[in-house]
Amino acid sequence: MPPKTNNNALAQRKKEQLKQKQKTRRLIWFTTVGVILALIIVAVLIQPKSKAAEFDYASLPVLGSPDASVKIVEFGDFKCPACKQVNELIKPQLLKDYIDQGKVAFYFVNLPFISPDSYTAALAVQSVHHQNAKAYWNYFDEVYKNQGDEQVEWATADFLVDLAKKTNLEIDYDKLKQDIVDKTYKSEVDAQYALADKLKVDSTPTFFINGLVYPADLGDYSALKKYIDHELEGK
């Protein structure tokens, strides 16, 4: 008769085997997770960085020194209420903290998508820019200051010419009117609209800072300031 099996010894042996299997499973799990994490890290490290958009800065209206190390490009529509707010609340702070100090250059690109008179306003500001670059930003501010209801057609040729006269711009008002009527700078406005489309700009205002779209809320000046300061530190 074969000897009786020691039940305690058998139970202990099964317990040890179970522990060994659990250790093996944990080892496989940790190894798998480790490999996955390593692959993720490698993917992050080798992924291409966002490519900066290229702007023909020399062709755009500039506020500040063109030699500034940080360049901000705004895509805007003169009928856009949010653009008006940024112009009246954020741009003055940028002027004080950066633009007037030669640290930032501010540029504008027309994206007249709201209504047909958005396009009319874009034609008007382009005409002023070509007639007198120094008068451009004064007119720019006045158009936003006198912005009408978004749902109403207010940016007519007559309104825009009268506004230029009231602002005492040093330009030829008859030429301004003719440029608007004849759409003299249609090709420029269309090219700017096409640039916005190419860069997938789908809302106004949108800022590009040194060629990269600013990802945060433009109404948060402290966040914008931190972003600009970071760009300045990197120069």
From TrEMBL:
The keyword DNA repair does not apply. Residues 46-233 form the Thioredoxin domain. Coiled coil: none annotated. InterPro entries: Thioredoxin-like_fold (IPR012336), Thioredoxin-like_sf (IPR036249), Thioredoxin_domain (IPR013766). Keywords: Disulfide bond, Membrane, Oxidoreductase, Redox-active center, Signal, Transmembrane, Transmembrane helix. The chain crosses the membrane at residues 27-46. Signal peptide: none annotated. The keyword Transmembrane applies. It holds the Pfam family Thioredoxin_4. Gene3D superfamilies: Glutaredoxin (3.40.30.10). PANTHER family: DISULFIDE BOND FORMATION PROTEIN D, GLUTATHIONE S-TRANSFERASE KAPPA. Belongs to the thioredoxin family. DsbA subfamily. This is DsbA family protein. It comes from Paenibacillus puldeungensis.
